[in-house]
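stuck on this one:
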Amino acid sequence: MSARILVVDDLAPNIHLLQVKLQAEYYDVLTARSGYEALEVAQSERLDLILMDAMMPGMNGFEACRRIKNNPDTWHVPIVMVTALEETKDRIRGLEAGADDFITKPIDDFNMMARVRSLLRLKMVTDQLLSHTGHTLSNSRSLLETIEKQRGRILLVDDHKRNAEKISTPLREKHQIVIESDPVKALRLAKTGVDAVIVSLVADSFDGLRVCASLKFNEESRDVPILVIGDPEDETRFVRAYDIGINDTIMRPIEVQELNARVQTLLRRKFYADSLRENFNENLEMVVADPLTGLGNRRYFDRAVEPLFDALETRDTAFSVMVFDIDHFKRVNDILGHDMGDQILKETAARLVTNMRAVDVVARYGGEEFMIAMPETKLGEALVAADRVRALIAGTPIFVDGEALQVTTSVGVAEAEPGESLRDVFKRADDALYKAKQSGRNKALPAAVRQAA
C-alpha cells in the first residue's frame, strides 16, 4: 500500500527511527520538527497519515492535532498520537483533540504498523467515498459526521464471560453488542448483518484464528471488519491473523480509550464503504442517463471531473478534456432522418468508449457532442489519443440498415490549468473544435493556452 506519511517529532533520532521503519515498508515519508512546521506541511502537501509526537516545545502535538482537524483542507487526514505518557487523561486529551488513534513509546513495530495500515485503509475508503459522491473536502464533513453517528451492530466472539463483559460494557454506550461463545452460532450471526466482529485469541473452547478464517471464507461475512484480541506474547498469532485478512488487533490488558478508538476506526470504514456502495447503486441510473447511447450524461460528466480538478489544485496532477463533434450531423438528420441519426450517435459512442482507457470519463454532452476527460494526461498525449480515435472513426464506415455511411468527427483538446473551472476548460476546447470545423473538419486541434490575468 503506497502512501505519504508525515512524521512529527522535535527529536531528530526519533524522526530518523520512524522514517527508516516506514520507508522499509515502502511508504513515502515527510518530516517536521515542530507543531508549527507540521501545520505548514499538512497545508501544502497531500498526506495520507500523520504520526504526531504529543510532547513538543512551542506547540505541542495535541494543539497541532486540534488545528489540523479544524482546518477544512486537512481535517480528513488520520492522525496517530505518539506519546510516552500512559495516563488515561492524556489519551483522552489526544482523542478530544481529534486524534484517530495513539501508540505509546517505546514504539512496538508490530503495533505501529497495524495502526498505520488500518488508518490508511480508512483514508482510502474516505477518499473513494468523497470522490464517488461528488463531495469536496469543504462540504463533506457533515456528510461523514452523519454517517459516523450510526449505531453499529458488533458481534463479540469470546467464551470468557468476564472478559466479554469487560469488552462489551464501554461499547454498549454507542453500539449494539451481541456476545456469542459458540463459534458455529457466531458464524451464523455474522451472515445476518453485523458491522464489525471482535474475536478473542485466548478462548479455551475454540480457535480464534479458525473463526477469523471462516468469516473471511464465507461470502456473506467476507467484508465485515474484524478486530482480534490477544496477549502481548501472541505476536506470531497476530501476524497469522493479518495473513488471514483481519483488520486490526488489540493487546491485553485492554484500555477503554484504545478499544473505543480501534472499534470506531473499523466502523467508520464499514459505514463509509456501505455508503459508497449505496451511492453507486443510487446513481447508476444517472451514470447511464443517456438512454440512446448508454453513456453518462452532462450531469454525470460535470460531477465525475470534480476530483480531477481537486487533484490538479492539490497535487498538480494534469488532466485533459476532449470535445468530439460529429461533422455535418444536422444534414444527416435532415436527409436520412432521425432514426438514421440515432444509429450514427450510438455507433460513434460505442467507438469512443471502446477506444479510450478504462479510467477516462466518456459522456454524451448533448446533441452530437461528446466529452472525454483523460486523468493524468497532458495536452500532447491527449491530442495523440484524440487524433487516433478520430482517424479510426473516419476510416471505418458505419453500417446502418445495410448501408455504409462515411462519418467523420472534429475534435478540440485542452489541458486543464490551475485556477480554471470546467467551464473555462470546455470553452478553450470548444474554441479549438470550432477552428477544426472552420479548417475543413475531420481534424483534432489543440486549444490555446489560457491567457494570464
The CA atoms of residues 132 and 275 lie 10 Å apart. The chain has a mean pLDDT of 88. The longest helix spans residues 256-282. The chain has three domains: 1-147, 150-277, 286-446.
